[in-house]
Amino acid sequence: MTTIGLIRHGSTAWNKEGRAQGHTDNPLDAEGVQQAVLLAERLSTEQWDYLYSSDLLRARQTAEVIATRLGMKIAGLVPGIREMNAGQIEGTTEQDRVERWGSEWKKLDLGLESPEASEIRGSQAIEDIAEKHPGSRILIVSHGAILRSSLRRLFPELNVSVLLSNTSITRIIKSDSTWNCELYNCAQHLKI
Known about the structure:
alpha/beta, Rossmann fold, PGM_Phosphatase, about 35% helix, six-stranded mixed sheet, isomerase activity, isomerase, Phosphoglycerate mutase GpmB
């Protein structure tokens, strides 16, 4: 049985401003660092064997806080779990997009990564990490949209309509070749 804790990074200034981040390499803000500290404290009461992160700064910073608290090293930076590419909308708010391209902007080809491409990329990266460490307990720090896309592919019946909270953990378990989702979008550590 392989257990994976999927973690969304801590908050950034762009999260608060409602800006599409995509591949933009934004740092955590002060609240995001504090969220990571609270999550790391929660995880310190559990046993984890490996820690992976997206190669984007906000995920790496979250993973570094966890690694320090848990006394472990980051096993690898994985481009496959990098946030979905937001194309021309990166750095924009909904209001910016409407002003620039009109209210039907979602129907335009603005270079966004397709949902299907992100589902395949993210779920394959998670499968690859699970195959590399069978029977282990693995943390993966990533991003909200790519995690939800990956979960849609791994669990077609799972309702992923609720956006993932910053530093939330979603726990999935692989037994033989079957995945089960044990916990979705849990951010209990932030309610202290």
